[in-house]
Recover the amino acids of this structure.
């Protein structure tokens, strides 16, 4: 029984390493496609944000990555640059704090934000996407929107 548990743990570790390897390759490819060098800070930030669904503040991103990779100022500069090339999306929730998440191609979602603790939940809802279709039916092109909901989460209520 103990040997089976050890084998299972080893398989899980190998699987995790393979997934990590895939994330590194995906991040390197994404950077190359935008013309950016695959620097250690850029890779670390892209991998951290792909592993942990955000959005995250710059401080939270810095805590997600190995502190030896880069300092806080480099995190800020890197986040800004990755937004400029379209790999990350900047989220504003009206509190003056920018948050960042991966900008997945073909995937758009919205958020509901707690007014008290600032916890963020993702909303993927077909009814909201109907608004995009509504605009396109009327001849609009290059339709974009920002839609965020605010309320009080169950823990803060």
């Amino acid at each position: 029984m103990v040997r089976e548990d050890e084998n299972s743990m080893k398989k899980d570790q190998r699987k995790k390493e393979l997934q990590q390897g895939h994330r590194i390759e995906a991040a390197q490819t994404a950077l190359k496609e935008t013309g950016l060098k695959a620097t250690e800070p850029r890779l670390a930030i892209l991998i951290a944000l792909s592993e942990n669904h955000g959005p995250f503040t710059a401080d939270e991103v810095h805590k997600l990555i190995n502190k030896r990779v880069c300092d806080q100022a480099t995190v800020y500069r890197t986040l800004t640059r990755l937004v400029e090339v379209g790999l990350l999306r900047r989220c504003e929730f009206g509190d003056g704090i920018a948050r960042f998440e991966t900008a997945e191609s073909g995937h758009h979602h919205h958020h509901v934000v707690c007014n008290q603790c600032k916890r963020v939940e993702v909303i993927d809802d077909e009814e909201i996407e109907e608004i995009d279709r509504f605009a396109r039916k009327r001849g609009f092109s290059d339709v974009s929107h920002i839609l965020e909901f605010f309320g009080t989460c169950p823990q803060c209520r």
